[in-house]
Amino acid sequence: MKKGYVLKRIIYTVFVFGVVVTLCFFIPRIGVDDPCARYYPAQGNMDDESYEVIKELTRKQYGLDGSYLSQYLRYLKGLLHGDLGNSYRAGSPKVWALICDRLPWTLVLSVSSMLICFFCGVVIGTRCAMKRGRWQDKALMNASTVTTAIPSFFIALMLTYFLGFELEIFPAYTDQNLVSSFDWSLRSICAVAYNAALPVLSTMLGGIISNAQGVRNSVISVTGEPFIVTARAKGLSRRNVLYKHVLRNALLPIVTGLGMSLSGLIGGSVVIEQIFNWHGMGTLYLEANNTNDYPLMMGIMIFISGFALAANLITDLCYSLLDPRVTLGEEG
Amino acid sequence: MSKALEIENLKVAFPTHRGVIRAVEGVSLNIDKGECLALVGESGCGKSVTSLTAMKLLDDTAIVRADKHIICGEDVLGFSDKQMEALRGRRVSMIFQDALSALDPVMTVGRQLDEVFIRHLRLSKKEARERSVAALAAVGIPEPGARYRSFPHELSGGMRQRVLIAMAFACEPELIIADEPTTALDVTIQAQILELLKKMQQQSGTALLFISHDLSVVSNMADRIAVMYSGKIAEQAQRDELIARPLHPYTRGLLSAVIGINDKKDSFIHIKGTLPDPADKPHGCYFCPRCSEAGEVCFVRQPLLKERVSGHYVRCHYLRCHRSERGEENE
Prior knowledge:
heterodimer; A: mainly alpha; MetI-like fold; 75% helix; B: alpha/beta; eight-stranded mixed β-sheet; 31% helix; disordered C terminus
């Protein structure tokens, strides 16, 4: 039963991934008759025959020769070998290598922002739940109205202006030597943290508030459960009950949400990365987009969706570890 | 004789947007050591609030006043949270109605039992585990070692209730408050649980405050019965006395609603109407709108709880007695 369920989920995930790959492959090709025609407009001083030869060579070089179907099959074959193709950039670097180069930088931003959001959210949310109806609680409510109304890129701009330009506490733009000079020494790690401060700050503000709000509601609803009275009737202190019974139950939905938000780790901060000129996946994608670098775009999209699908699968399969009432594959 | 629980003139009110709800209005309870007092009443009459207040477990929104509140010889009226915590689970404990929701769903029942031992007896985890398995065995749970690792949802309703009972008796408290411990169970399981509760109580000599809406359940368990109506004690007497000679019309109604196996009644006897809205209680006797025997005075003046026969208290203007002494009227 359980094995069957896991297998079913995996097959389903692979199927969705296949659909994504197909869409990523065909959508950029819609409406483009001959990509080479755009790169090599017909030259006056060249005869048609040699022009055709050049175009054909170019197509071959970029893997655009043959019918769409044969291109698709070739792409799939490469994908099965873990090859996402080559970028159109100078030197034709592997798409995979470009992604691997940028991925850690994006994760530095998103993972640290996610962790801060989670922990601060839990602490603030729990506090507010304890002080239900008092000013702390009301402040959280109002703050969440404000932060949901303000997009993170606006916060980023404000922070850049005030902390970056006016007060000059943090760098408003990422130091461009940061990536090339990074050598795992303490000094360069500190430099990364220093440069990452503003982007992380601007993404985490809204996250903390929304997390805190979720935790607050969850804690309040769990506090009203009868088993909390049982725990108190056993003589456990409020503190003990909070840590052992309330939070353990209240964080179930929060941790699930965290698992789901894993998928946003890579593709979630395109705009923020662009604002701070951060050397991450988001800027890579925008570069690819601006230079019509189709293999790179496809590669990034496929990578992001594959990551999201894997994250969802893992969250699903791990849910029963968090909540013993959930058994995998049980109907209804 | 020393008492396990003494509460005098307990009043509990909840301020709400509809006005103040007076849930409990001047209830006094006395339980001797080893005695079982049953508190009977309809849902919403204030039984559960009384029991939670006895443990000082109501949340801060409630307004609680009492002239006297003594648990196991300790005057807990001015006790802090911390002092109460030392008492709860150790000298006075509680059994709840719905065992599924009264147990933490994400913690094994064994670990929940361990908590009591670790908190009060300062045992190590290993010692607590041994005690817990023994406690599970004592309440008749088969394979206690395996059940120790079960989560609440993996046990049947009866087993869960047994776990709660094991938890309540864990530190051999002097008083246990059982709030409708059998209401959520099948009748057959109900009988088993009552049997177990009675056996455990007699073995350990614990005093029991047994709260129920069901007089037939209570009549097997209790030494004394207190009938509660709309936040007040309506009648209180020794069990046999109360069942043989109920003085309050409400008690009589409850008793005649109990069906015996040999009854030849054609229809169910029920008390007409419902409990008054706690935010809008009637003038005079709270029971008068539903009382078939109410006279004029009942609608004007609230009756007091008076001792009519030795040890038999009743809150009624008229003293009528069922069956044997029908027709006799006082006042």
